[in-house]
Fold this sequence. Notes:
113 residues
Amino acid sequence: MPAMPSLRLHSSIKDDTDRAVAYYSDFDSRLGQKFIDDFSNRLDTVFIFPEGIVEYKIIQTFSIRRINLSGFPYAIFYHYDRVKCTIFVFTVTQAQQDPDTIEKMINHRSLFE
């Protein structure tokens, strides 16, 4: 049986989710919690099937994968290092953003933070 991967979240993920929760909670207090639940469920999917998500883009020397949240227009962007058996989540952000904007965000978020 293959080893279970470790999951590392960039230090800005809490800020990313807090902004989204605040935004959706302004519309309905329950939407903020639904966002967190959706985010958590999608992270579970990434954890169980880290290579099951299609590669989104190659940035620098590593592949970035993207998984959309199911109930919100957001996506999780991550890298899976098969050798180190580690999933590194760069961001959860609005999925409709310009790809260059997303790439710049990822480039500014180091794998080692």
